[in-house]
Write a structure and sequence with these properties.
- This protein has 158 residues and is of the alpha+beta class.
- It has one domain.
- Helix content is 59%, strand content 13%.
- The chain has a two-stranded antiparallel sheet. It has a two-stranded parallel ribbon with strand order 3-6.
- Strand 4 and strand 5 form a beta hairpin.
- The protein is flat and about 60 Å long.
Length: 158
């Protein structure tokens, strides 16, 4: 993902990478967890540390999303959104079979990085935060499917 959001003024809001910044620390904890005997006291301590790190990432992301939502609604009373189907964007690539029955490269290894970034951005959670903030401030959100989005948007503004 290049940008988290683009405003009508042309402001580009960068994607926060909360999971990406903590990914190295998380992987080190998970490697040490794998070496511990299951349900032993050190294993339980590491499980708790991993859970706290996941919780920290989730809290950082949610706080950033609320701050962004309030910032976006500070100047406007209506926000137009594209209603993207994020679940379809995150789907795995279908396997490709060659003539001899062997699997061919299908680009899944490249897409796995994109999937991780899409899930780190938590776009659906941001839409829910936007709806809540709009309700709280008494403002509106209008969502449209991406197909012919610009023409319908221009028709609504006229």
């Amino acid at each position: 993902m290049l940008h988290y959001a683009v405003t009508s003024d042309g402001d580009l809001i960068e994607v926060p990478k909360f999971f990406r910044f903590s990914e190295h620390r998380l992987s080190k904890l998970q490697v040490t967890l794998a070496k511990k005997q299951k349900h032993s006291p050190p294993w339980k301590i590491l499980k708790r540390k991993i859970a706290k790190l996941h919780q920290l990432i989730a809290k950082q992301r949610l706080e950033w999303q609320f701050n962004l939502a309030y910032h976006l609604f500070s100047d406007v009373s209506v926000i137009f959104l594209e209603d993207l189907l994020v679940a379809n964007l995150v789907r795995r690539c279908k396997a490709k079979l060659g003539d001899n029955g062997q699997f061919l490269p299908n680009g899944q290894s490249a897409k796995s990085g994109l999937n991780k970034s899409l899930q780190d951005a938590a776009t659906y959670q941001f839409l829910e935060v936007l709806e809540y903030v709009a309700w709280k401030l008494g403002k509106r959100i209008i969502t449209r499917r991406p197909k012919r989005y610009i023409s319908t948007l221009l028709g609504m503004l006229e």
